[in-house]
Design brief:
- This protein is α+β, with helices and mostly antiparallel strands and 397 residues long.
- 43% of the residues lie in helices and 24% in strands.
- It contains 11 helices and 12 strands.
- Strand 9 and strand 10 form a beta hairpin.
- Helix 2 runs parallel beside helix 3, helix 3 crosses helix 5 and helix 6 crosses helix 8.
- The longest helix is centred in the last third of the chain and has 25 residues.
- It starts with a helix and ends with a strand.
- Bound molecules: adenosine-5'-diphosphate (ADP) and magnesium ion.
Length: 397
């Protein structure tokens, strides 16, 4: 079992707090984004992986409609009624300063399940995990998906992966106020040891692709978030929409999203688009092609080739899309010079946050130390480096 000590600790805390054993325990991991940047909302492809850190959710029925929910690390309890689960009041400072914000991820997931089948009773629930919070590893999806699997089992509600993922996404939208896509939840559910998850965001379907046991990632968290990131994010999305409308006019085949345009078509038919809009659009178009190229390289066992595509991805972010920053560039530049590093790129939205570095497992320690010190040489403080192995996705214990 992944993270057995946390499972044991949760069992012990559950028994001590509620005076009985849990009836159902589920586990769900965090995730990393490996390739395919800003492609999800352009109906494109993304490579991601479930990671070896995750969250357990333990639960037992209660005789009344009362629910008791405990965050196992803090041993804080909140109570509510199973037939009255509502989002927090509009305008509530959800992510900053609101109290016990963790309850919203659980309540939002519970509310999504309750829409399928109204609950006939409450529950005693407790969760405990080791995904670093707010570090770009999606502790929130790990919490939602462990909650979703455990409560679906407890209440005997039939679900499938895409339905559970959408319930988690909706919990973030309506109970937390975070307009996330589906990548985090799907990766948490679908991940497998030593394999990447390749998701097609047009059909919302996925498959896994073998990476080999020697592939490791280092996640370098720069702990920076540059101002104007939200405004810039919206402008980039608008560029993609504007470009899709342009290509729909000038190409002979249907274009419903940037996904339908190839780099060759982009080069020939971009005339008429403002230069910055054309460049922005080239990034997700290129990313889609890089995910497909990466899949082919992995099927040939060419990890170094896959790493080179990750470097190309970062270059496209830096030059065309403009969603990199000095801190992320520093990590990627340092990575290029470190022996054993195969590839590196920013991961997630950009403008700060984390970079993901592909490294052979035998070089993990030397590469981690070299990255942290190269970063410190420029910014006076090291970046946080976590070692990530593609790991099993969510399951019922
Ligand atoms: P990320 O998903 O990248 O880690 P988010 O801001 O989306 O960052 O989610 C982090 C939030 O999720 C935390 O602030 C907390 O409210 C909640 N959370 C997730 N896992 C746990 C946990 N094991 N214990 C307490 N809170 C958790
Ligand atoms: Mg999150």
């Amino acid at each position: 079992m992944t993270n057995k000590p946390i499972y044991d600790e949760l069992q012990g805390k559950f028994r001590a707090h509620f005076g009985r054993y849990p009836e159902v325990v589920a586990y769900a991991p965090g995730r990393i984004e490996v390739l395919g940047n800003h492609t999800d909302y352009n109906e494109g492809f993304v490579f991601s992986a479930a990671i070896q850190f995750g969250t357990f959710f333990a639960v037992a029925k209660s005789v009344s409609m009362g629910c008791r929910l405990v965050a196992g690390d803090l041993m804080r309890e909140v109570t509510f009624s199973a037939d009255d689960v509502k989002p927090p009041p509009f305008g509530y400072p959800l992510s900053k300063g609101g109290s016990d914000t963790w309850q919203n991820y659980v309540k939002g997931t519970f509310a999504g399940l309750a829409e399928r089948k109204p609950p006939a009773h409450g529950f005693d629930g407790m969760f405990l995990g080791n995904v670093p919070l707010g570090s770009g590893l999606s502790s929130s999806a790990a919490l939602e998906m462990s909650t979703g699997i455990a409560l679906a089992k407890l209440y005997n509600i039939a679900t499938d992966a895409v339905m559970l993922a959408k319930i988690g996404q909706n919990a973030e939208h309506t109970f937390v106020g975070c307009k996330c896509g589906l990548l985090d939840q799907i990766s948490s559910l679908a991940g497998q040891e030593n394999r990447l998850v390749k998701t097609d965001f047009r059909s919302v379907s996925y498959e896994t692709v073998n990476m080999g046991a020697e592939a490791c990632f280092l996640l370098c968290d720069t702990r920076t978030k540059h101002a104007l990131a939200d405004g810039a994010y919206n402008r980039l999305r608008e560029s993609c929409e504007q470009a899709a409308a342009h290509f729909a006019r000038v190409l002979r085949h249907p274009v419903n999203a940037i996904r339908d345009v190839s780099m060759t078509e982009w080069a020939i038919y971009k005339r008429g688009l403002p230069e910055d809009v054309a460049n922005h659009a080239a990034h997700p178009i290129g990313e889609n092609e890089r995910v497909l190229k990466g899949a082919k390289l992995l099927s040939e066992g060419n990890l170094a080739g896959f790493g080179a595509v990750m470097f190309d991805s970062h270059e496209s972010s830096r030059v065309l899309f403009g969603n990199s920053c000095a801190e992320l560039d520093a990590v990627v530049d340092a990575a290029k010079k470190i022996p054993g590093v195969l590839g590196a790129r920013l991961s997630g939205g950009g403008f700060g946050g984390s970079a993901v570095v592909l490294v052979h497992s035998r070089d993990v320690e030397t590469a981690s130390a070299a990255l942290a010190s190269a970063y410190a040489a420029t910014f006076n403080t090291p970046c946080d480096v976590s070692v990530i192995k593609p790991a099993a996705g969510a399951y019922l214990v």
